[in-house]
């Protein structure tokens, strides 16, 4: 059995016959039966509809780097197409070159992927990751200081301002606001597309799912109850006589705290770090993404796009479920 790119169906999802007898190697312009003896990297191409152009654009880059390629699986997970390849070599430069040609698909090019059939943990940020808004910006808007607080939020997420400093400045601007605003924001808190699909899918696999947020406890507790999450961590706003005081109680959940939460939860549940996934969008998520076995930036800020192990820009959270189940 040997098949060239020209003879393959346009849509990757129709390549089942190619893999009917097992994995295939890309050799001299065609796929032939075979397996890499010891892969050093994994490449997953993802899209709502994945066409062979994604692979055709990727193969010359792999060939130029003298990377051998094994086509190991074609899957459809959470209504999204995935093409899974094992690689004989991996490097950050290779990942960057593949990312540069990804026109209408997402990809993960990493040394290793988690295994869905073994215990695992997903820890995600909340604002602009699990939900579509920044809760503090919404509180500020209702309190009449929206522009001031939103500007500080942008600076923090882009890495231009230390997170703890930015949080204290933003909360200080809320001093005197009616605490009932919090319930108003909870009442119209839009979930990120794919969130319920991701959480339900992970729970069916027996994985742990948690949130670590630089936001505030009422919002993460609402999500924890709504989705049945295993844990939720956030900051505590001080409230006196029904009004915000402008102070945060206790230690702030910043970048270092998020990374530590990941390690501590993994240890608590006896889960290897290689079986952990972190998801975030801002600069204060980078340590957590780097600490995890698989770090995924979701529709992230430019600084995070540059540094994150994996970037999802076209799909949403359902794409993470695909990566967990890719191989």
TrEMBL record:
One GO term (biological process): L-serine biosynthetic process
E.C. numbers: 3.1.3.3
Coiled coil: none
Active site annotation, chain numbering: 125, 127
Recorded catalytic activity of this chain's protein: O-phospho-D-serine + H2O = D-serine + phosphate; O-phospho-L-serine + H2O = L-serine + phosphate
Cofactors, names only: Mg(2+)
Pathway the protein takes part in: Amino-acid biosynthesis; L-serine biosynthesis; L-serine from 3-phospho-D-glycerate: step 3/3
CC annotations in GO: cytoplasm
Protein name: Phosphoserine phosphatase
Provenance organism: Zobellella endophytica
Gene: serB
């Amino acid at each position: 059995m040997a098949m060239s790119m020209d003879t393959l169906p346009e849509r990757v999802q129709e390549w089942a016959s190619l893999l009917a007898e097992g994995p295939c190697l890309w050799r001299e312009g065609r796929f032939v039966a075979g397996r890499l003896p010891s892969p050093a990297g994994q490449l997953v191409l993802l899209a709502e509809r994945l066409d062979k152009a994604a692979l055709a654009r990727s193969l010359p880059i792999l060939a130029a780097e003298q990377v051998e390629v094994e086509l190991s699986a074609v899957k459809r997970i959470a209504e999204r197409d995935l093409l899974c390849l094992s690689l004989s070599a991996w490097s950050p430069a290779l990942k960057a070159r593949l990312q540069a040609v990804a026109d209408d698909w997402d990809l993960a090019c990493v040394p290793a992927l988690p295994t869905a059939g073994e215990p695992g943990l997903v820890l995600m940020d909340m604002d602009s990751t699990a939900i579509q808004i920044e809760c503090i910006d919404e509180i500020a808007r209702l309190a009449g200081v929206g522009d001031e607080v939103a500007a500080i939020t942008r600076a923090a997420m882009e890495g231009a301002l230390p997170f703890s400093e930015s949080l204290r400045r933003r909360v200080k601007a809320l001093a005197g606001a009616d605490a009932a605003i919090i319930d108003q924001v909870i009442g119209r808190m839009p979930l990120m597309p794919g969130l319920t699909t991701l959480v339900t899918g992970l729970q069916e696999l027996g994985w742990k799912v948690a949130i670590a947020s630089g936001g505030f406890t009422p919002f993460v507790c609402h999500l924890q109850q709504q989705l049945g999450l295993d844990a939720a961590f956030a900051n505590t706003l001080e409230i006196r006589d029904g009004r915000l005081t402008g102070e945060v109680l206790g230690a702030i959940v910043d970048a270092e705290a998020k990374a530590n939460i990941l390690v501590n939860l993994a240890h608590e549940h006896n889960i290897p770090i290689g079986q952990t996934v972190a998801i975030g969008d801002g600069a204060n998520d980078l340590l957590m993404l780097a600490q995890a076995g698989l770090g995924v930036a979701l529709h992230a800020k430019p600084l995070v796009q540059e540094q994150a192990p994996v970037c999802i820009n076209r799909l949403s959270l359902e794409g993470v479920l695909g990566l967990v189940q890719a191989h």
